[in-house]
């Protein structure tokens, strides 16, 4: 098993869009190899994802036709809002970010139809799936690489991403990569 933890350091950030629900920033990141890369980041109520920002100003997100499973409110009283996920195809690599979501059978369809290569799977257990539910989602999606996310997002206790990694890699052929915050 590979226990490598990857990291990037943000060198600069420019706000491209600031709205009531999301903010889009263009960040310059320092990579582990010393090179820099540009990242377009969507910030949404305590969560963020990296996605392409097309020249015409559009982005592609996957609409989910259900309500989020969580209590509905952030600690400061703001609503969580509708759950959303995003499926990207970047140079032939299909990346599926589940966002904050509950376990749902749609993941079987996504795995069968879109066959993601990489899946970002929430494991926190309060505003999303717990570790055991996330293990099922990872199997259904069938991605070769899974990255646990949102394990420290509004949880009532600490959720260990390395516990998820150990359980996933010991029961499947899926590689788990834990990112450093």
Q: Can you put this structure into words, describing what you see?
A:
This protein is an alpha/beta fold. The chain is built from three helices and ten strands; from the N terminus they run βββββββαβαβαβ. It has helices at residues 106-113, 131-141, 161-171, and strands spanning 9-18, 23-30, 36-44, 47-50, 62-63, 84-90, 93-97, 118-122, 145-149, 175-176. The strands form two sheets. A six-stranded mixed sheet has the order 5-6-7-8-9-10. The chain has a four-stranded antiparallel sheet with strand order 1-2-3-4, with no helix packed on it. The chain is globular. Mean pLDDT is 78; it is low at 64-71.
Please report the number of helical segments.
3
Helix content: 10-25%
Q: Multimeric state of these chains?
A: single chain
Distance between the termini: 21 Å
Order of helical and strand elements: EEEEEEEHEHEHE
Shape: globular
Structural class: alpha/beta
Overall number of strands: 10
Contiguous runs where pLDDT drops below 50 for at least 5 residues? 64-71
Strand arrangement across the biggest beta sheet? 5-6-7-8-9-10
Using only C-alpha atoms, the radius of gyration works out to: 16 Å
Beta percentage is 25-35%
Main beta sheet, described?
A: 6 strands, mixed
What is the residue-mean pLDDT, rounded to a whole number?
78
């Amino acid at each position: 098993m590979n226990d490598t933890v990857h990291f990037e350091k943000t060198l600069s950030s420019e706000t491209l869009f600031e709205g009531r629900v999301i903010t889009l920033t263009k960040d310059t990141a320092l990579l582990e190899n010393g090179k820099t890369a540009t990242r377009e980041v969507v910030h949404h109520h305590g969560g963020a994802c990296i996605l392409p920002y097309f020249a015409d100003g559009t982005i592609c997100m996957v609409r989910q036709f259900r309500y989020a499973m969580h209590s509905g409110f952030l600690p400061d009283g703001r609503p969580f809002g509708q759950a959303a996920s995003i499926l990207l195809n970047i140079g032939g690599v299909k990346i599926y970010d589940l966002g904050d979501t509950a376990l749902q059978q749609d993941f079987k369809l996504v795995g069968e139809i879109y066959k993601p290569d990489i899946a970002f799977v929430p494991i926190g257990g309060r505003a999303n799936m717990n570790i055991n539910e996330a293990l099922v989602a990872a199997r259904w999606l069938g991605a070769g690489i899974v990255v646990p996310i949102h394990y420290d997002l509004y949880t009532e206790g600490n959720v260990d991403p390395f516990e998820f990694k150990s359980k996933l890699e010991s029961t499947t052929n899926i590689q788990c990569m834990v990112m450093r915050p």
